Amino acid sequence: MVLMESFGVPLGTPAYDFSLQDVSGRTFNLSDFSQARVLVLVFMCNHCPYVKACVDRLVALQRDFLNRDVQFVGINSNDATDYPEDSFEAMQEFAKEHQMNFPYLHDDRQRVARMYRAMCTPDIFVYSTDRKLQYHGRIDDNWKDPTRVKREDLRGAIESMLSGERLTTVQYPSMGCSIKWKN
Questions:
Q1: The domain at 3-178 falls in which architecture?
Q2: CA separation for the pair 9, 74 (Å, rounded)
Q3: Which among 21, 71, 96, 138 is least buried, having the fewest CB atoms inside 10 angstroms?
Q4: Residue 37: which residues within 8 A CB-CB, separation 6 or more?
């Protein structure tokens, strides 16, 4: 496990289009989420201990914001050849096990992760209605133990965006395992 932090992608960077299949077999493009006021893209995987520790928090956040025009989308870009626990079939099992309530997309060619400059799992990108990056940071201040969380950074960013406030707080990078790139 190699610990990485998210890369400082400049705020205001536009979201890039993609066409990826989710665990149900449906193909999604960026435009499929055009009705969402806030779009949360989470580069994640199945085997990373950081993702395993926070996936249920992501599911809870999507549930909390479901009726507020917020859409979460998970994207797995890891090399499944060297990391079979991140295969499409394993993604399907992972999504079922965690009762994921948002699309979990397979970036098997790793093009989307490269376009977005994703570095780690989880790596979180939050976009406003105009699909400009407004938040690129961590979920909260304790990846390991949800009972010790004192600051919910991602929730706060989404709440601010929904209320039309400008995000003024420091954005701490997300941290996790490195994306497993193909050779």
A1: 3-Layer(aba) Sandwich (3.40)
A2: 18
A3: 96
A4: 68, 69, 70, 128, 129, 161, 162
